[in-house]
Amino acid sequence: MMGTGPFAAPTFLSLLKSPHHVLSLFTRPATPGRGKHAPPPRPMFEIAQAHGLPIFEPDSVNSPEAQQALQALAPDLLVVCDYGQILSRETLSLARLGGINLHASLLPKYRGAAPINWAIYYGETETGVTVIHMTPKLDAGPCLVQRCTSIGPDEDASKLESRLGELGVGAVEAAIAMLADWDGRIALGEVQDPALATKAPRLTKADGEVNWFRTAKQIGDQIRALKPWPGTYTHWLRREHPPVRMILDAASPVPLREPVPPGTVAYCDGQHLHVATGEDALSLERIQPAGKRIMEVAEFLRGHPIQAGQLFANPASS
Fold first, then answer.
1. Are strands 2-3 and 78-81 parallel, antiparallel or unpaired?
2. How far apart are CA 122 and CA 229, in angstroms?
3. What value does the mean pLDDT take over residues 98-122?
4. Distance CA 101, CA 129 (A)
5. CATH 3.10.25.10 fits 205-312, yes or no
6. What is the CATH superfamily name and number for domain 2-196?
7. What does DSSP say about strands 265-268 and 244-254: parallel, antiparallel, or unpaired?
8. Which of 251, 302, 301, 294 is nearest to 276 (CA)?
9. Which of 120, 270, 275, 288 has the most beta carbons within 10 angstroms of its beta carbon?
10. Domain map of the chain by residue range?
11. pLDDT (tens digit, 9 = 90+) per residue, 11-65?
12. Phi, psi at 297, each rounded to 5°
């Protein structure tokens, strides 16, 4: 098994309970925490440790040292999920049946590191998981098994990741069964059409900034897509005072009462805060001001009298 993040954990646990013999875990090396933050959790490492499995943490899975360790194990199959490294052709060839990868999208859509986030960001109502027979190209191998599911209208990336991780268990089991009966010659799976491929690149902090010229629905999707990181943020611009940076934790589209430019506070009565967008307004429901906890917008407004006509924007661009 090759995996690092929590999305891979349900499949790993399932394989450990199956009749298959899991030889070891290859996982990314530990990374230190930043500032006051603790190091990221390592669910795969902890599962392997609890089951007494050998654990390998190469900086590169394609290094000669990692390949030697893998060759000594003589695996039939590499099961890869949420690992964070691309396996070379030479590395894949060290397993008799090559490798399979569990990916959190309906390939060829959303190839890359953040498929769950970008599917929500772009307003998809359906997604799923795909198990591919791996090639050296990113998420480009033939599709062996796919499972579909709807995306809930209020479902954020963290909740969807948990559901897709569980959905992937049966998909991986089905793919392994296909390979168990494979003669090694007949082509397996459905070849992906590269013309239909879309990208899901790794998230950056800049992806979280609100562009108020997008629609209220699109910004609401962005809020759900970017939980828990990097979060969706904007700045309340105040005259003669520094801007207040705030993360938008929950919001919903509402009709715009009067036409005002995007990013303008369209309505505020001390309980509700509506900001104009490129289409409709966005009712801010829960926010997290810089250095503070998440709070209901009414609580924030009790200490911060925002007025209609004020602006939410990037201080640099404004």
1. parallel
2. 17
3. 98
4. 10
5. yes
6. Formyl transferase, N-terminal domain (3.40.50.170)
7. unpaired
8. 251
9. 275
10. 2-196, 205-312
11. 999 999 999 999 999 999 998 765 566 777 899 999 999 999 999 999 999 999 9
12. -65, -30
